[in-house]
Amino acid sequence: MNQFENEVQSKRNDFLDSAVGFVVTFGFFITIFVIAQVIHFFGTR
């Protein structure tokens, strides 16, 4: 067993960190998409 398995810095569940990262990234791209759609909608009038 290596030293990193013996001395764990964080015992949190990795799934929670991955889910938060996915949701934040997804929210960012959705925000950019919505802003682009609003600009496109009002730009074509």
Overall description:
Helices cover 76% and strands 0% of the residues. By secondary structure, the chain is mainly alpha-helical. The protein has one domain (14-45). The protein is rod-shaped. The chain starts with a helix and ends with a helix. InterPro entries: YqzM. Pfam families: YqzM.
Write a brief caption for the model:
Pfam families: YqzM (PF14141). The chain is mainly α.
User: Nearest-angstrom radius of gyration?
Assistant: 20 Å
Helical residue percent band: over 70%
Overall form: rod-shaped
Report the major sheet.
none
Cα(first) to Cα(last) distance is 66 Å
Q: How large is the share of residues in beta strands?
A: under 5%
Structural class: mainly alpha
**In terms of quaternary structure, what is this?**
single chain
Low-confidence stretches: none
List keywords for this structure.
45 residues; mainly alpha; 2 helices; 76% helix; 0% strand; rod-shaped; YqzM; membrane
Topology:
Layout: H1 3-6, H2 14-43
